Amino acid sequence: MPRRKGAPEVNAGSMADIAFLLLIFFLVTTTIETDAGLDRMLPPMEPPENPPIIKQKNIFTVNINKNGQLLVEDNLMNLKDLRSSATAFLENGADGTCDYCKGRRDPSSSDNPAKAIISLKNDRETKYSTYITVQNELVGAYNDLRNREAQRLFGRDFTEMEAEYLNPETPKSVRDDLKDKVKRVQDMFPQKLSEAETSTN
């Protein structure tokens, strides 16, 4: 009686090569999303020897408690009113040096946009979503004013110009043209958003 042949062997020699090629394929084609952060400059490690003297009226104080309530300039305020209040403070123009400001020129408020500082302080138990929302409203106040001036001077929104300028795919000639325009508008309303030390109670 003839012997039965065993099951044919599967040649697995190339399986490692195939697995390696698949790994390379997925590494090359997979995109990893990066988290967007807040663009903030941290203070230096050592404070300056002669810090500048800042008048209290040039500081717009915003406090967030652990319940998400806003205390703006020592008064309770709804979040929906924060942007307009910050805008009014930034373009108050009390000293008369800002000829493009449309503020009330209240002598008890900020002298001019270059001296105006927004100070934000939050509690350790403040919700992150509340913190981000407040940040967005304050940055939005700067952007609204910058957009207004960019429209007046160049017929375009500042946020659109800045995004195009920062885009690495924008041609160099266009970026060179936008550089001075973006800086000019930024200098008109410099973003001075200071974060005070977080409170623990």
UniProtKB/TrEMBL annotation:
InterPro entries: ExbD (IPR003400). The keyword 4Fe-4S does not apply. Keywords: Cell membrane, Membrane, Protein transport, Transmembrane, Transmembrane helix, Transport. Pfam families: ExbD (PF02472). GO terms for biological process: protein transport. Its main location: membrane. One of its GO terms (molecular function) is transmembrane transporter activity. GO terms for cellular component: plasma membrane. It is a single-pass membrane protein; Single-pass type II membrane protein. It is found in: Cell membrane. It comes from the Bacteria. Belongs to the ExbD/TolR family. This is Biopolymer transporter ExbD.
